[in-house]
Design brief:
It is a single chain. The radius of gyration is 38 Å and the shape is elongated. 31% of the residues are buried. It has three domains: 164 residues, no CATH class; 48 residues, no CATH class; 109 residues. The longest helix has 39 residues. The chain starts with 19 loop residues before the first helix and ends in a 5-residue tail after the last helix. It is mainly α. α2 packs antiparallel against α3 and α4 packs parallel to α6.
């Protein structure tokens, strides 16, 4: 990079011309600068494709902008005025700042480092402003060459060091996390399953008549080793009637296939809630891939239907919806048995 020598106070300052080329480069540099800032802002986006595109935009913007900055500094040294040592410093700091911004791309790909945007945000304007200052000798009386050059070089060096310090800190934190993880005991999948079973059993042992009625449902389901005991204890929940009706209205009917065994009163409000929910589920289960959906969501309520029908609940629309759904699937012995059972239900 070419540099000009310093002048003595006695030398006349040449007439100042407008550095058109430098100004045009600075204006054009706004485009890659915007690409850098936009790309780096999205480097830890949730979507992987977005992160990849953001990285591409940032790298392309960095390459273009730092080429333009090199040209600006070259024009400043060749056609403007700056101390000879500043020209040498610019020759060194230009690639140093480029590598620092590249390191910032890596840094910003991790959450929690948004503040590092200050590096690509400040470095290009600072370097461009210095290069333009070199082309405007009239400003050197206000901004002396030595002081201005020293301040700019120090600022560029400081900003270039920031991402490396942060990367070092991030590496130390990750190493500490890995060390902590290595100290944790290794637990096999079998041990995890055994622990999960113990925790599940412990939660059941902690249930009382004041517990939520819904907390018993996972233990009542068929196949549970606590099924019979859970049925007995759920009958003791103090506000089971209100909670059962709320669970039905909240769409938890699939968990309540044993409602008839839980000492719940078939009140008009419970009958209405049950009938409305069952009808809705029957309508939603039409045209699914297999009759198994009827088994899982509708057949499980056959005993509930018998219980509520014997209590003179109005189930006509709900039973009709269930029957229509079941008939929509191919004939099988299981389907035909279910339809026959529905036909025997009394309907108010």
């Amino acid at each position: 990079m070419m540099t000009t020598g310093s002048t003595t106070p006695s030398e006349a300052v040449p007439a100042q011309t407008v550095p058109v080329a430098s100004i045009v480069l600075i204006v054009l540099g706004v485009v890659p600068y915007a690409m850098i800032m936009a790309g780096m802002s999205d480097l830890h986006d949730v979507d992987g494709i977005s992160r990849g595109l953001a990285g591409v935009y940032a790298v392309i913007g960095i390459a273009i902008l730092w080429i333009m900055l090199a040209i600006l500094l070259g024009l400043g040294a060749a056609k403007g005025r700056m101390p000879s040592w500043a020209g040498i410093a610019a020759l060194v700091l230009h690639p140093v700042s480029l590598v620092a911004v590249g390191a910032t791309v890596d840094l910003l790909s991790s959450p929690g480092f948004d503040w590092a945007l200050i590096v690509p945000g400040v470095l290009p304007p600072l370097i461009a402003a210095y290069a333009l200052w070199a082309r405007l000798p009239g400003l050197h009386g206000v901004l002396p060459e030595t002081a201005t050059s020293g301040a700019v070089c120090a600022a560029v060096l400081l900003l270039s060091a920031v991402p490396w310090i942060a990367l070092s800190q991030r590496s130390s934190e990750r190493a500490e996390v890995r060390a902590q993880q290595q100290q944790l005991p290794v637990i096999s999948d079998e041990e995890r399953r055994a622990q999960a079973t113990r925790d599940w059993q412990a939660r059941f042992e902690g249930l009382t008549p004041d517990s939520s009625f819904g907390d018993y449902l996972d233990y009542i389901k068929p196949g549970s080793p606590f099924r019979q005991r859970a049925l007995e204890e759920a009958r003791l929940v103090t506000d089971r009637q209100e909670q059962a009706e709320k669970l039905i209205r909240d769409g938890m009917l699939v968990w309540l296939g044993d409602l008839w065994q839980l000492d719940i009163a078939p009140t008009p409000s419970l009958c209405d809630a049950f009938a409305a929910r069952l009808q809705k589920e029957a309508e939603e289960d039409r045209g699914k891939g297999s009759y198994w959906v009827v088994v899982e969501y509708l057949e499980i309520h056959l005993e509930n239907l018998k219980w509520l029908a014997s209590a003179h609940c109005d189930l006509k629309d709900a039973i009709a919806a269930v029957e229509t759904t079941a008939r929509g699937y191919p004939e099988t012995p299981q389907r035909d048995r279910f339809l026959a059972a529905l036909a025997q239900l009394p309907q108010s």
